[in-house]
Amino acid sequence: MLNSAKSTKSVISAEPEPITLDWPATALLIIDMQRDFLEPGGFGETLGNDVSQLAGAVKPIGAVLTAARDTGMLVIHTREGHLPDLSDAPPAKVERGAPSLRIGDPGPMGRILIRGEAGHDIIPELYPLDSEIVIDKPGKGAFYATELGDVLEKYGIENLLVCGVTTEVCVNTTVREANDRGYRCVVISDGCASYFPEFHEMGLKMIKAQGGIFGWVASSAGVLEAMKVSTT
Ligand code: C5J
């Protein structure tokens, strides 16, 4: 008898090599697409960065987010930030460098990088649905001091489509944490961005080098093509 069961897998064209993903075991992880990083007056700008450098990632992420919602994929958003009393913000982080405003200082979008403030929220274009998971994280990696590991285990997730900002900081840290925990990470190249274009390029190279030492890198078009196949 022929097995008529539809496959739940398809292949993403990726570097260093194509990767086959089982879609029910795959989640979309969107890192820190917050006003504090992407808009003037937030944490990113207080550090002296040109925040317009991150804008290019919004549309590719939006396209994958729409496809993920259409296919019923688990969607997880993360937000970097701290409790209002800064009890989860190590002095070594707060005191670092010479920003124009420090974490916790009042700025045009509320207190810088503080949970509940306008700047801490996700940008309107990618705003989470009520049904989606939002993980608040005090560090750069999304696993450190969060419930992310438990959430992924609960939903039987083995693979992560990772995008967001910034490529070399929170995306890279999270991918490295995920890799050590046994997750296959496919990083969406045009769905990530950095204040430093050269760090974006190198951040992606570091992931896919040495046979994909931390994971795979694919374009949003490549991911969308594979997601289409998975639903036909
Ligand atoms: C940074 C992040 N760059 N989300 N955070 O401090 O990458």
TrEMBL record:
It holds the Pfam family Isochorismatase. The keyword Phosphoprotein does not apply. Transmembrane segments: none annotated. Residues 26-213 form the Isochorismatase-like domain. CDD domains: cysteine_hydrolases. Keywords: Hydrolase. One of its GO terms (molecular function) is hydrolase activity. This is Isochorismatase.
